[in-house]
Amino acid sequence: MDQEAKTNFSFASIAVSFFILIVLPLTITGVIISKGVVKVGEEATQANLRILDDSQKQSIGGRAQTVADAVAQFLSEREKDIRIATILPRDENSYTTFIRSNTRGAIRSSQVGVVKIPIPLYREITFLDKQGMEVLKVTNDGVVPKERLRDMSSPANGEYGDEEYFSQARGMAPGEFYMGPVVGRHVSKTEFEAGKNFDGIIRMAAPVFDSSGFAGVVELALEYVHLMEFTDHIIPTEPGMFFASVNVDDMNYAFMVGRDGFIISHPSDYLIRGLDANMKPVPVMNEENYQTLSKDGTGAMNVREMGFLDENLPRIDALASEGKSGSFTYTIDDKRIFAAYANIPYYGDGFSKPEGFGWIGMIVDIDKYHNLSQEKVKEIQQKVQRWQKSSIVVVFVSLILLFIIALILARGLYRSIQSARRPEESTPLQDDED
């Protein structure tokens, strides 16, 4: 009887065993997952609840200098290209190969995220004879027909109004070159908001010499998008990250200023100086016309004229024009602004020290940055709560299902054990015969 009691498995004991083996581990796992979700949420909250501290300010200042140095290096590389262009054979095949072989990646958004796509460095390469007549021009679309070639002995014949690159380059010595200003059609605020971007070039030109002496001038049209790429995709407070587009309303962006004080790269392309429909430069914004021109974005911005809005902009331009780089924090209209600037140390022909090519600026509205951080924290906390509730529901439903399954399995096993015992119990042992 004692032996029978020891080997007798009750339905309850089997059910408890299944509960311990199946349901209990899931319960423990659910608790761990729930706590893990909360912990990850807390860590994410702390990571996003940030203030612009001194170390981050130094990092932004260093990043501005890094970008400025990269721009200078980029322009130095273009010097090599214009010198190579002066010794190229003056034929369609050589010029076409030059255009197609010089490309550089540009950041764009796509269905798979932010990607880099190759874009030609130069829009055109042109050879002009001694008198300034275009003899051979090759663009990204191919060789330009002779009837469309221009006589650049007169600057007024330029594609973008008065252009002096031929007259500037023809008087230069071998090895010298000319790099002009940014030229392009102005983009209004309405056009920009509809998806149109500033599309400009920088003319580079150098004299060409052969055995008989001066033979003419070679010209390259540098696609200005490649310079804009250095600043257009940067959010200063997000180191090492690049974005297809930057929201200027967040007041957390980078920009570029030329040595003459004009904005030449900015998240808002309509601030860049360009030509109007009559091929005349759009007016420069100042205290008198700012309200009118800024409303529809039909004026160019020169930081030297912006003292009435922010006295620190002309101050920064003056410091950068002295070849200096730095940063500082100031308050304007109850806003705390952090600004970093770095001189672009490029001193090619026509770009003397200390001004160089211009400067890189990075600006952050400290209070708005902190408020955006708090909004992100709230968003993370809401997600954590949703995940936690979802995990609890999943675990609870799983527990019910597994408990039912455990009962079914326990009942089945219990019946199997009982049916296996019945034959033994129904056949009495014959001790005498044994």
Strand order of the largest sheet: 5-4-3-8-7-6
Average pLDDT over all residues: 84
Question: Helical proportion?
Answer: 40-55%
Q: Which structural class should the secondary elements be placed in?
A: alpha+beta
Are there runs of 5+ residues with pLDDT below 50, and where? 3-8, 44-49, 426-434
Q: What is the chain-wise order of helices and strands?
A: HHHHEEEEEHEHEEHEEHHEEEH
Distance between the termini: 20 Å
Q: Report the total helices.
A: 10
Give the overall form: elongated
**Oligomeric form:** single chain
> Mind summarizing the main beta sheet?
6 strands, antiparallel
**Count of the separate structural domains:** 1
Strand proportion, as a percent range, falls in 15-25%
Q: Nearest-angstrom radius of gyration?
A: 36 Å
Number of strands: 13
